[in-house]
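Please decode residue identities from the backbone states below.
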């Protein structure tokens, strides 16, 4: 029987979802912080001291090609995300997720040092950052499966994963503000430091399964063990031949390819577009770049609750729920370019210019 205390904040699975929400936000914040920082790193800055105006020369004089290689390095590392599945089988989803967050945070904190060494040293570190984040993203699916019931799994997963959209939406303006008032190094120190701290909290409070946790209530532990179909996947044999021959797998792969391409454009290219075409300062670039991600936040939160409602009421089967919501979400990739094309008329640029005057 489900715990009826009415104090949902005391139930451990909600704590898992909350920490997961924060971690997903930080993971994607560390993915996108370079998109804002690199604008500040490669642009001259005008500073007024008293009655004198001083122009600070950009610290790095990278070509467009070099910038492209730097920004794409993360994605090359992220292609190894399936490695997270193997680490999950070895260490458990919760442990693998914590390791991914901690390593990504450490590499982020060390970013200024890597850049001082050599361009290619940082590119290699950025690839490793993609590897570590890929491990975290794939392992979290197993972590939330162990800590949720079939009844609330979509809600907990949706709430957790919406953290990435919040991370991008809030991260852009936060990183822009940090770079504006401090410098680009502060962006990496702050975001990486917070992530390392969160990973320590995660390891201290969360275990791989309810059965291993001695900090949760006995009532909730019994409830999760009774209704959850969770079982260890360490000895699970994957039918790779059938997976690669599945039309559904390739359909989903194609959707994710298009979605990832669109998301990468907004993540890595939009700040440069705003800077080069509209000549907006670094602080305001962060606010403008965050705007397309607002829809993602709303859609993820609403869709997760809608999925549980449709499945629990028997209106749609689990597979049909996933398919239909995936089709709806794919339309965001078609709508967003129209907003970018008409950014001059969005009202934000006008407001920014008025504030600057």
């Amino acid at each position: 029987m489900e715990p009826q205390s009415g104090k949902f904040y005391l139930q451990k699975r909600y704590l898992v979802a909350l920490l997961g929400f924060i971690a997903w936000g930080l993971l994607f914040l560390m993915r996108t912080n370079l998109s804002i920082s690199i604008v500040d790193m490669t642009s001259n800055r005008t500073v007024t001291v008293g009655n004198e105006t001083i122009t600070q020369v950009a610290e790095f004089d990278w070509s467009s090609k070099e910038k492209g290689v730097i920004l794409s390095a993360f994605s090359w590392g992220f292609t190894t995300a399936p490695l997270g599945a193997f680490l999950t089988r070895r260490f458990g989803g919760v442990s693998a997720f914590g390791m991914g967050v901690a390593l990504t945070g450490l590499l982020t904190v060390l970013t200024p040092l890597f850049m001082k060494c050599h361009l290619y040293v940082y590119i290699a570190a950025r690839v490793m950052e993609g590897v570590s984040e890929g491990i975290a993203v794939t392992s979290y699916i197993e972590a939330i499966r162990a800590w949720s019931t079939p009844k609330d799994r979509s809600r907990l997963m949706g709430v957790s994963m919406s953290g990435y959209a919040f991370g991008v939406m809030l991260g852009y303006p936060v990183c822009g503000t940090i770079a504006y008032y401090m410098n680009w190094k502060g962006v990496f120190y702050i975001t990486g430091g917070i992530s390392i701290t969160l990973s320590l909290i995660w390891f201290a409070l969360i275990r791989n399964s309810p059965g291993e946790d001695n900090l949760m209530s006995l009532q909730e532990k019994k409830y999760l063990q009774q209704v959850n179909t969770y079982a260890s996947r360490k000895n699970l044999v994957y039918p790779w031949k059938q997976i690669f021959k599945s039309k559904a797998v390739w359909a989903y792969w194609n959707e994710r390819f298009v979605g990832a391409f669109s998301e990468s454009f907004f993540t890595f290219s939009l700040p440069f577009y705003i800077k080069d075409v509209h000549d907006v300062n670094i602080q305001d670039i962060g606010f403008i770049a965050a705007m397309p991600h607002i829809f993602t936040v709303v859609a993820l939160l609403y869709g997760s609750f809608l999925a549980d409602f449709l499945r629990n009421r028997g209106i749609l089967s689990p597979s049909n729920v996933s398919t239909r919501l995936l089709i709806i979400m794919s339309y965001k990739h078609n709508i967003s370019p129209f907003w970018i094309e008409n950014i001059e008329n969005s009202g934000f640029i006008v407001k920014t210019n008025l504030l600057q005057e």
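Observation: The chain has a mean pLDDT of 78.
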